Amino acid sequence: MKKQIFLFVMLFIFTAKAENDNELSCGENCLWSYDESTHTLTISGTGAMKDFGPNGAVGMNKLTYQAERPWHTIASEVENVIVSGVTSIGHRAFQDMGNLKNVTISEGVTSIGRSAFATSMKIESLTIPNSVDTIYGGAFDGFGGDIFCSKSKERICEQGLEDSNGLREDNILKFYDFDNGRYVLDNVRYLSIGDMQSKINGLGLKRIYTIEEANQVTKPTGNTVRIKYR
User: How far does CA 111 lie from the centroid of its chain?
Assistant: First the structure.
């Protein structure tokens, strides 16, 4: 009897562990973890991330495929994503994540899936690693920030901004060159990608409204006009 109880307990522990491991898995050699205190989702491992739905699926089907993501229940809470070690980012992996602001993708990622970052509008900037050689259509559809891409990967990055109609949002692409240990963008040299991003996005401006334009979108207060930015 004791032996039967022991075997039952061991089977229960093994089953629970297998189920838990499955919940923590995002691919054969891909794991994920979430830090509630910093709202940071970390993807790590050595293999490819799962695709959540096929390439080409559109419309309401995306809701079904998004629900396959193991982090789907906390997707709306995530503010930071770190992708490290894995070789790919799956289709729809971070699509429609309304509070996602910061994304770090390490070298070694070779592909970014369809709609992977689509309509995650709060992301201020994202850098495409030089290791990436494939970006599926719509990967950044409706993207809200700047995308930094090496000049050597220009066509690959442009493809990632093509929507289902073949249209591109080229204005959000920032192409940089690497020269003598410095990242060069618009003839300005930076020590690192992070330095380049912080200085550019630190301005917080894409364009300044004129006084006349500002008057059309906001009411003057006293003798002043609140200048709006976009």
Answer: 13
Widest Cα–Cα separation across the chain: 88
pLDDT of 192 reads 86
Sign of CA pseudo-dihedral 139, 95, 197, 133:
negative
Domain 2-177, what fold? 3.80.10
Phi, psi of 8, deg, nearest 5: -65, -45
Q: Are 228 and 217 in contact (CB under 8 A)?
A: yes
**Are 172 and 147 spatial neighbours (Cβ–Cβ below 8 Å)?**
yes
Question: pTM for this structure?
Answer: 0.74
Report the alpha-carbon angle 18-67-55, nearest 5: 105
Beta-carbon count within 10 A of 52 CB: 26
pLDDT digits (tens, 9 = 90+) for 4-52: 444 343 333 333 333 343 457 899 999 999 999 999 999 999 999 999 9
Q: Where are the domains of the chain?
A: 2-177
CA atoms within 13 A on the CB side of 65: 24
Distance CA 224, CA 83 (A): 45
